[in-house]
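Late entry, written up from scratch paper. The run itself happened at the end of the previous shift, but nothing got recorded in the book at the time, so transcribing now.
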Amino acid sequence: MAVVTLSGVGKSFGNDEVLHQLNAEIQDGEFVAILGESGCGKSTLLRLIAGLEEISQGDVLIDGEVVNTFTPKERNVAMVFQSYALYPHMTVEQNIRFPLKLAGVSEQEQKERTYKAADMLNLTNYLPRKPRDLSGGQRQRVAMGRALVRDPQVFLFDEPLSNLDAKLRVQMRADIRRLQKELGKTAIYVTHDQIEAMTMADRVILMNKGRIEQFGPPLELYDQPASEFVASFVGSPAINLIKGRVEQSGENRFHSDDLSIPLDIKGIPRQTVTVGVRPEHIQIGCNDESKGFSGVILSIECTGDRTFLEVKVGQGSLRVTTGERANFKIEQDITLCFPNEKTHFFDINGYRLPKSN
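Output as recorded:
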């Protein structure tokens, strides 16, 4: 069992506070992705959990035990790095065995664990080879094998797929997730890639400037973003965000410059807000004409399964995604509408406003 708890965790370098009072609990056997842009503190947080950095405040607990003063070895965690960190003069087998050799494990057990890990990672035929004779994906699997043979409580991954091409990343995503499920081990996975986080994780910690912006299942971040930051970070193409004001004069309407959009929504008072609607949620055409508004198509991109439109609306434009292969044309007039249940509202500070239908 390995429950990892962050209790008021903070980190400072001199007077520069880079992590601010982080609180989270990662359950036994859970796969949690720490997602965020460069410089948000995600790798620093992983290093605090691993014991590679000292905590400035708060506690890291593993199975209820504070491990702040424990060495990485004493925490029984294993880390897989972006750079693989393989020894070039050693064979694949020697690289995988190395941590067992350092730990004084018997020769027979070293062999058994190494061969078992190699079999799980499809590396058996590569055991005699040197790292220079391997592809990037194979090298990353060797790095995983070296972590695997240690039989740690927790696996820590620091952007392990960043050096791989797109096709290999897809395969390695599946391999890592399959292996984690087979082993039932707790895994914490740092990435800047939302696709990795959304497709691999049970839950996602989205970080912003050293703080946890939202922690929850991937689709919760997508469907119920806690803030403008979450809404804009998760999802591609990016969500449409329009600043304006809600007015209530007989009917709810949202006004932004010369744009006026009818909204069948209760519970949002008259105030300055930002409306957020994802491109795939904007409806082309409207059963109720009173709910629609007009736009003009500026650009069209068809990828086969989807069509991406940029539509001029008022003084700005909206991104619209549809699965239809309709015969759209540049400068074509179209009617759009925002579905009530898919429209998000954020206050002037960028936080989600509750609404009632």
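The longest helix spans residues 166-183.
(Scratch paper discarded after transcription.)
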